[in-house]
Amino acid sequence: MQHLATHFPEVSLEDGAEFHRVSGGNPRAQADAMESKTSVHEVLQYFGGTRQSSEQIIDQSIRAAIESAKDAHRDAPRDVDRMCECLAALRPMIPIRVLATVAGVPESLVHSFVTDLRRPLLIDGNAVQFRDEPTETWFQQHYKPTGAALTDFLGRVTQLAGQDPYIATSLPDLLLDAGRIEDLVQLALSQAKPEGLFAASSPREEDLERYEIAQHTVQLALKGALRARMNPAVGRLALKAGNLAAGRGRRLELVRQNPDLAAEFLEPSLLEHLIATRALAGEWPGSDLVIEASLLSKASGQQALARNRLRSAVEWTKAWVDRSVLADEESHVRISDIAELAWAYINTDGPQACTAFLARWTPRTIAFDAGIVVARRLAEVGRVDDLQELAGGSKPLKHLQLAVAQASWESDIDLSTQTVRRIITMLKRHKHAIELSKDRSDYFSPTTGLDGIWWIVALGTRFDLLDKAEGIRILDLYLPENIGVTTGPWYRGSTVSALRGFAIRSRLEERDLDADAIAGPDIQRAKEKPHTDSQSLREYRQNVVPLCKWFDLWSSVALGLSVDVATSYQTLAANTMRSYSDYQTPRLLINATARIAVRLLADPSAPRASAELAAWCAENVTFLSRATFTEVIRIAAANPELHGLAIALTHTLGASIELAREESSTLCDDLVALARATYNFDCRECRHHFQQAVETTERAGDDLPVRWRALMKLAESAARLGSSGPARTGCCKLQRVCAPTKMKPIWLSRSRRRVCLTRVKRLRWHPDGEIAELQA
Question: DSSP letters along 592-615, please?
Answer without folding.
Answer: HHHHHHHHHHTSTTS-S-HHHHHH
